[in-house]
Each structure stands twice: as structure tokens, then as C-alpha cells.
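sry for the spam today, last one i promise. C-alpha cells for design, 715 residues
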């Protein structure tokens, strides 16, 4: 590994360029310093409650996706509030992160137009080497909104390849297909034909889902029905409850969102590194195998508190994080009373001391504060700051990520206590998916290496008689094709060392149980892009280990699949068309751990497998998406860092201007390779003297592209 730090002096300005990415050279890059979570005192900011858009009477709404600036409860070392640029959803100009909570009722269909108003230049660094949405840089950012847990027609599901840029200027292949097939495809139709559920909407654009969600594109969509309304009206449940969207994040010292973009590689088991070959250089910026932030946000606020009364409260907890599993517990050792799973109620509430949640999962819980007048109760997390491999985790609750939020219990009540208890019937009969099971399929989770030797999780099939047996890329031939209006059992085999939270679109499934199996991944060669092709060896006779956990016995669209195990789910596929299934670790989903799911007869003209993989190498060369972040720290006194990223070799000039548009310095001038580059300005003018306090502009000219940003020097 080679670490290259090249000091240059241009017009007397000191700059450092870190991390040149030159073809054929191995790279070591130095990540920028990040904001220390210790500067933010936990439980000092109130829990935000997103605005509610009540659509229980039906109708149409236009929600706009916009860039906005929001205070996420974080502080600088000096104790000042830091503001953060985020993406949000909202009515008109009122974008917020998380987006407003949509409430709609069974039997009353609604329509939503998700209007993309995001500007050019993503908040996060983009890895163009992934299989991803292909758009031109001056048309905004591709987005597509998926209603997670929604039972909706395929044209309104938010298919990952039905993305579109600002004002539908450009769109993905499935957008065009739906438009050609169904006519207008700007309005999404939600038929509201499912039971009360804690669904949520979030971005799903191919290859940048993790970045769009990280930047803020998520919100609750609560579906209600007559049963739930009667439980509330009769005082069994308190009300519709509070959504708690739990997400981990990292920040730069300026308050800017940060996600590591330095890929890690290890050539063991890498097809491209075999036979003495040198693997291609890692792309920069690069996706990381998994992401774990050091700040915990609930509803977009770092470690908030909520004032509550000594009575029962209802919470819809969402793990909206990229990769982090939480093992929630309460500091006073009280139980969570689980009343519902992802997509509906349990038959009877189940009390648990610990609540394990993988990314994408929701649990509907009651917290009973009745006997805790005047106490502070902390929602804690004993889950790991790394990949979750199952087993019992007991990580320190005193670390920053061991704390989530605080409930401050008052001493008086203004509302009657709800009557719900473990004997309450929340639904007329236990949830089960109607049979008979018409087909059982064996699908497999793999971990291999991509063409750059990066760890790459994948899905695939176990079918030794098929030429497609083994791991499959996103755009290889569709293998999951249930017949319309049939029930299937999916046996999901895990051959990796990690737990993967698996999500199926369209359906609410039943977790039938978990089994042991003997199938192990075997590397058999190279896939169409030069990564590894694995197959699963004979799984042997499977042995049932357990039924679904008691708190999982409701309608689910997420299933945790443990290492060395098979999880069996039963689902009914009752709407035709194109859907997907994937791991909900967003960094896995964006890196090939997603596959199409087509229900019913497949038309010949569907746009799947239209050369996306063949185009990756070309795309990486062609994409002209230069990016430059906000300098950090900002404001600054001594020195500040400016990061920019180039999609290819570019002629670059980074100029510095004062408020009167006088050129006061040049921070970079020359031909720079593809990748991320970091410049440092030491606050000195060309003559070596300290620049005066004030506003300055830094302007990046990279080939045809110009990006200008503002910085502030305060001495
Ligand atoms: Cu995964």
C-alpha cells in the first residue's frame, strides 16, 4: 500500500493533496477528521414529531423532494449548533427529514405524486462503479419512492429502475416501461387494501439508495383500518402512537453529513487477483462493505428526549439505519409490550425485555410508564458497532451508540390509561397466509468479491439442474417468478457469516421457522463482470431449530436470516408485475444484494437485463459528475479542508475569491486523476500574510464543470 501526500506551494498557499488514484497503483487514503459525538450532550433536545398529512378521506397530494438545511441536534467543539444539509420530503417548500407522516385508511385509495426537486450535485460522494441509475449530471439526482410494506401495483411500488431525475427530465428503464404500459406514471396509486400497518416510504434508486436515504429521504406512512380505530375508540390502545425512526450518522466537523468512501480490499478469494493478475484499482469514492455511524438520531434529532405522562404510550419503532442492528432495552429493565410487526397486529401482545431490530424492520410497541412517575428512562442499545452475526450481544450502553433517547416521565396525566394487556385480542384470528403452498423455492445469500476485489454480498438460487445455479447479479435473468395468486414457501439459505435482514416487496409474509442446513458456498469461477461466482453445496436435510419468535408472529415483510441457517417464509403473490427482493442493509442492497421478483406471466418486452453490467466499465469512464463538498471546519480560524471528487482525469483549477470577486489564491492547478482529493487552505494570502476574516468563495473548474461554494474565515 502506498500513501501519497504531496505538498505543493502555489502562490504561497499551502496545500496538501491526499489520495491520488492512478491506474495500476494501490491506494491508501486518509479519511477526513469527523465530528466527535462527545461535543453533543445526550437527551438535551426534544424529540421531533413530523407533521401529519391526513389522507384518511382519500385524495391526491404532491410531495416534493428538496434539499434543505436542518438542525439535527449536533454541536461543534466550541458548543455552537451545527446545521446540516439534508434531503427531505414535504408539501410545497416544506421539505423535512424525516418526511411528514402520511396517514391513510383501508378502503380509501389515495394518490401521491413524488416530485423530484433535488438540485445537481449529491450531498454524498457517489461510487459510479456500482450497477446504478445512469443519468446526466445537470438533471438533478435520480430518486424513486418505495412504500416499504405497501401492497401496491408494480407501477407505484417504487421499482429501483423506475427512478427519475428533477421534474422527470430523465428516467430509468422501468419508468419508461410503466409509462408505455399504463400511461401516465407520475401519480403513484395506493389502493389501501391492506390491514393497519407501520409502513414507511423511502428512496430506492438503483445504486444510490443508501446515499439518498442517508441524506434524509425517509418517512412514516401509517395505514389504519376499522379494527385499529375501534381499539383506539374503546380505549384499548392509546392512539395512533409516535413514530421513532432510529438512524445512525456521521458528520464532518462542519456539520456536513459524512459517510466513509474509502473502499477496503483484500485479495483473498478474489478471481481478478488469481494467477498472478493484478486486480483493477479501487474506484474512489467507493462503497464500503457496511456503515456504522457514531451518532444516533431519532426522527432526525441526536439522542432526543420526550416528556411523557405516567401512562401507556404507543411507539412505532423503525430501524432506518444503513447496516446497524439494535438490541433495544430500557434502563429501568421494564418490558416492551410488542403489539405489532412490520405490517400489522399480533394476535396478543408479547412482552420482551430486549427487542432486536435489523435495518428495515418495524415493531409497534406499548411502553407502560404508569408506575414510573418522575423518573427518566433511557432507551438503550446493546447491539454491536459492527456487523451483526447473531448470538447474544451485550455491548456497552454507555458508549454513544449505546444510548438512543430518553423518556422523562412526569407526575400527572391528562388522558386515561389504555387498557391493552397481554390478554388483549388485537385481531380476530392469528395472522396466517392463506395456502396451499403451490411452490417451494430455495434462494441463497452469498458473500463474494466484485471485479475490484471488494467484498460483495449477493443473492442467488440453489438449483443444481439450472445453468443459473448459484450467485446472481442484479440484472441476470429473472429467477423468482411466482404464478399470480399463488402461495409460495421461500427457503432463504444463508452461507455468509453475517445476519442479513431480507425484504420482499409486495407481500406481507409469515415467518414459518428457522432451520439448520449443511450447504456452504463454493467458489466456482468468475461472473460476467469479473467478480466471483459461487454456488451452494448440498444443503442436506434441513433440521428445524425454532418457529418464528413469539413477537414475530404477525405480518412481516422483513426476515432476519442467521449465518448457517435457513429461514422459511410463506407469502401470497396476489398482484402481477415487477417487484424486487433484497437485503435491507442498504450498503448490501446497492452492491448487488438485490434481485428482481416478477409475479405472473412475464411479457417479452420487459426491460430487465438491458446491458447494465456490460455498461458498468463504460459508465465509469463516461459519467461526468464532479463533486465538491462544503469545506470543513467552516467557519475556520487556522486551516480548512476542501474535498472534491473527479469521475476521470480532469484539468483542474481550484480558485479562491474574496467578497469583491478578487482572485486571492489558487489551491489546485493541473491535471488530476479520478478520485477524491483533499486540499487544505491555511488562511494565508499569496504574499504569505494572514487573510482577513470574512466570506470567501472557492471555485472548482474541472473540465467543463464549475462548482462554487462559500467559506467563512473568522480569526
Ligand atoms: Cu445483507
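last one done:
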Amino acid at each position: 500500500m502506498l500513501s501519497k501526500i504531496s505538498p505543493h506551494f502555489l502562490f504561497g498557499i499551502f496545500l496538501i493533496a491526499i489520495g491520488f488514484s492512478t491506474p495500476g497503483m494501490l491506494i491508501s487514503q486518509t479519511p477526513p477528521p469527523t465530528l466527535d459525538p462527545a461535543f453533543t450532550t445526550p437527551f438535551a433536545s426534544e424529540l421531533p414529531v413530523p407533521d401529519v398529512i391526513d389522507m384518511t378521506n382519500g385524495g391526491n397530494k404532491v410531495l416534493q423532494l428538496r434539499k434543505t438545511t436542518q438542525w439535527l441536534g449536533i454541536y461543534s467543539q466550541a458548543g455552537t449548533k451545527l446545521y446540516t444539509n439534508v434531503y427531505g420530503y414535504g408539501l410545497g417548500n416544506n421539505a423535512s427529514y424525516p418526511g411528514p407522516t402520511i396517514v391513510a385508511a383501508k378502503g380509501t385509495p389515495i394518490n401521491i405524486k413524488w416530485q423530484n426537486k433535488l438540485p445537481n450535485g449529491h450531498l454524498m460522494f457517489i461510487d459510479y462503479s456500482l450497477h446504478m441509475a445512469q443519468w446526466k449530471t445537470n438533471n438533478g439526482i435520480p430518486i424513486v419512492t418505495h412504500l416499504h410494506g405497501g401492497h401496491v401495483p408494480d407501477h407505484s411500488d417504487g421499482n429501483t429502475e423506475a427512478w427519475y431525475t428533477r421534474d422527470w427530465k430523465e428516467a430509468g428503464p422501468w419508468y419508461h416501461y410503466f409509462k408505455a404500459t399504463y400511461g401516465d406514471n407520475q401519480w403513484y396509486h395506493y389502493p389501501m387494501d391492506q390491514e393497519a400497518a407501520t409502513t414507511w416510504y423511502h428512496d430506492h434508486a438503483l445504486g444510490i439508495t443508501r446515499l439518498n436515504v442517508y441524506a434524509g429521504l425517509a418517512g412514516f406512512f401509517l395505514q389504519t383500518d376499522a379494527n385499529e380505530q375501534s381499539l383506539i375508540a374503546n380505549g384499548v390502545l392509546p392512539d395512533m402512537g409516535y413514530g421513532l425512526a432510529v438512524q445512525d450518522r456521521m458528520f464532518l466537523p462542519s456539520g456536513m453529513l459524512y459517510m466513509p468512501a474509502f473502499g477496503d480490499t483484500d485479495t483473498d478469494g478474489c478471481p481478478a487477483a488469481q494467477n498472478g493478475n493484478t486486480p483493477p484499482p479501487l474506484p474512489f469514492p467507493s462503497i464500503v462493505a457496511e456503515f456504522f455511524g457514531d451518532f444516533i438520531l431519532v426522527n432526525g434529532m441526536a439522542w432526543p428526549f420526550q416528556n411523557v405522562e405516567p401512562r401507556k404510550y404507543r411507539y412505532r419503532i423503525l430501524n432506518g439505519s444503513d447496516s446497524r442492528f439494535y438490541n433495544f432495552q430500557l434502563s429501568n429493565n421494564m418490558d416492551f409490550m410488542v403489539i405489532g410487526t412490520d405490517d400489522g397486529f399480533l394476535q396478543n401482545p408479547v412482552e420482551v425485555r430486549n427487542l432486536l431490530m435489523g435495518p428495515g424492520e418495524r415493531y409497534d410497541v406499548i411502553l407502560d410508564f404508569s408506575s414510573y412517575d418522575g423518573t427518566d428512562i433511557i432507551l438503550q442499545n446493546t447491539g454491536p458497532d459492527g456487523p451483526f452475526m447473531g448470538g447474544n450481544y451485550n455491548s456497552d450502553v454507555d458508549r454513544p451508540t449505546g444510548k438512543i433517547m430518553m423518556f422523562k416521565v412526569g407526575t400527572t396525566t391528562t388522558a386515561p390509561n389504555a387498557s391493552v394487556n397481554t390478554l388483549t385480542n388485537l385481531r380476530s384470528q392469528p395472522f396466517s397466509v392463506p395456502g396451499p403452498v403451490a411452490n417451494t423455492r430455495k434462494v441463497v445469500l452469498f458473500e463474494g468479491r466484485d471485479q475490484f476485489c471488494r467484498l460483495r454480498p449477493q443473492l442467488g438460487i440453489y438449483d443444481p439442474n439450472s445453468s443459473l445455479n448459484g450467485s446472481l447479479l442484479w440484472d441476470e435473468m429473472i429467477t423468482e417468478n411466482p404464478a399470480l395468486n399463488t402461495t409460495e414457501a421461500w427457503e432463504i439459505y444463508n452461507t455468509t457469516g453475517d445476519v442479513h435482514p431480507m425484504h420482499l416487496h409486495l407481500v406481507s409474509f409469515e415467518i414459518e421457522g428457522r432451520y439448520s442446513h449443511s450447504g456452504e458456498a463454493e467458489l466456482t469461477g468468475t461472473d460476467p463482470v469479473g467478480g466471483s461466482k459461487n454456488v451452494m453445496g448440498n444443503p442436506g436435510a434441513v433440521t428445524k431449530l425454532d418457529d418464528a419468535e413469539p413477537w414475530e408472529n404477525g405480518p412481516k415483510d422483513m426476515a432476519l436470516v442467521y449465518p448457517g441457517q435457513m429461514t422459511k417464509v410463506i407469502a401470497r403473490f396476489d398482484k402481477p408485475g415487477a417487484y424486487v427482493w433484497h437485503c435491507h442493509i442498504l450498503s448490501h442492497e446497492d452492491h448487488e444484494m438485490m434481485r428482481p421478483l416478477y409475479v405472473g406471466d412475464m411479457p417479452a418486452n420487459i426491460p430487465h437485463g438491458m446491458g447494465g453490467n456490460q455498461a458498468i466499465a463504460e459508465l465509469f469512464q463516461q459519467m461526468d459528475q464532479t463533486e465538491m463538498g462544503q469545506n470543513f471546519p467552516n467557519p475556520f480560524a487556522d486551516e480548512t479542508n476542501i474535498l472534491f471528487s473527479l469521475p476521470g482525469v480532469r484539468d483542474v483549477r481550484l480558485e479562491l475569491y474574496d467578497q469583491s470577486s478578487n482572485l486571492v489564491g489558487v489551491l489546485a492547478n493541473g491535471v488530476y486523476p479520478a478520485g477524491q482529493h483533499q486540499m487544505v487552505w491555511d488562511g494565508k494570502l499569496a504574499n504569505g500574510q494572514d487573510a482577513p476574516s470574512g466570506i470567501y468563495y472557492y471555485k472548482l473548474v474541472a473540465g467543463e464543470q464549475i462548482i462554487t461554494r462559500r467559506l467563512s474565515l473568522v480569526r
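The radius of gyration is 26 Å. ok im logging off now
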